[in-house]
Design brief:
single chain; alpha+beta; five-stranded antiparallel β-sheet
Length: 103
């Protein structure tokens, strides 16, 4: 099972051309599909305010938030999935163990 990690977001990256290309070529995906690439724990670290338990009577799960969507694309030439959270893009990519950088 892939375990892609948080790579960057649109507020900290300097590669605006790569962001524009990522968004222009993005495909909408479901939360379930997103989870095929990223473990829930990795998302929970970035978004601790959501209800991550099985009791749906308490709080909102990220997949049910109208201001959140999930996408698949490429960033800086590499496959990625990202969360659009009120138009801030949180990008996740595969981590290669043979280098100190992601991609």
């Amino acid at each position: 099972m892939p375990n892609w990690k948080f790579a960057t977001d649109c507020t900290t990256t300097r590669n605006m051309d790569a962001l524009e290309e990522m968004v222009d070529h993005a495909v909408d995906i479901t939360w379930s599909t997103f989870c095929r690439f990223v473990r829930t724990e990795n998302v929970k670290e970035l978004f601790p305010g959501y209800n991550w338990g099985s009791d749906r009577s308490f709080g909102l799960h990220i997949k049910d938030d109208y201001a959140v969507s999930f996408h698949k694309s490429r960033f800086e030439g590499y496959p990625c999935v990202y969360i659009d959270y009120s138009h801030i893009w949180y990008i996740f990519q595969e981590v290669h163990h043979d280098s100190s950088t992601q991609h």
